[in-house]
Amino acid sequence: MQLATRAAAGKAWCMSVLCKLVEIETSVHLANILFPLSSFAGGKRDPSDSNVVDTALREAREELGIAVTENKVWGVLKPLSDRSGMMVAPVLANLGPLEALTFQPNPSEVEEIFTLTVAHVCNPQNRGYTHFRTGDRYGYTLPVFHNAKYRIWGLTAIALDHTLKLIIPV
């Protein structure tokens, strides 16, 4: 998950979450960081990656066209399991000011890059929960984040929710 800062109309810098929009094969436009689904840059480990941080930095280069150095990494969140059982280790990094970044998205992997401010995703009007059923019974609940154009849900929303709990005082 990439965090960046942005100057807010003459105000102090504000923190933003960087997401990508990926068009799925069926062209169904649902926004999920992770896919249109919305997600964070990331992917499977390559044999050349020595750890999850290397994987995240390589994926940021391949998908977004930006070079993130290891000293920008804040840490690795608790691994999450997707529906197939694959473990995902979200890597949290500070990209610095958005204005200083030159994105070169890989068109085969990224349809659009967008940001949401941390203030936006923390606003109770922009977040909620989706309840899922298993058969005819309640199954589980997951967070969801909204703005006018996108809906962040699924594993991306879980990683974002965990990140917010770490960086925002209660």
Explain what you see:
By secondary structure, the chain is of the alpha+beta class. The chain is 19% helix and 35% strand. It is built from three helices and eleven strands. The strands form three sheets. Strands 1, 2, 3, 4, 7 and 8 form a six-stranded mixed sheet that branches. The radius of gyration is 16 Å and the shape is globular.
Structural class, from secondary structure content? alpha+beta
Q: Report the count of strand segments.
A: 11
Classify the oligomer. Answer: single chain
In percent, how much strand structure appears in the residues? Answer: 35-45%
Q: Extract low-pLDDT stretches.
A: 7-13, 24-38
> Radius of gyration from the CA trace?
16 Å
Mean of pLDDT: 78
The level of helicity is 10-25%
Q: Total helix count?
A: 3
Sketch the major β-sheet: 6 strands, mixed
Distance between the termini: 21 Å
Order of helices and strands, N to C?
A: EEEHEEEEEHEEEH
- Morphology: globular
Please name the defining characteristics of this protein:
single chain, 170 residues
Topology:
Elements: E1 2-7, E2 13-22, E3 37-39, H1 52-64, E4 73-76, E5 80-81, E6 87-88, E7 91-97, E8 112-117, H2 118-122, E9 127-134, E10 137-146, E11 151-152, H3 154-167
Parallel strand pairs: 1-7
Antiparallel strand pairs: 1-2, 2-3, 2-8, 4-7, 5-6, 9-10, 10-11
At a glance:
The chain has helices at 52-64, 118-122, 154-167; strands at residues 2-7, 13-22, 37-39, 73-76, 80-81, 87-88, 91-97, 112-117, 127-134, 137-146, 151-152. The protein is α+β, with helices and mostly antiparallel strands. The strands form three sheets. Strands 1, 2, 3, 4, 7 and 8 form a six-stranded mixed beta sheet that branches. Strands 9-10-11 form a three-stranded antiparallel beta sheet.
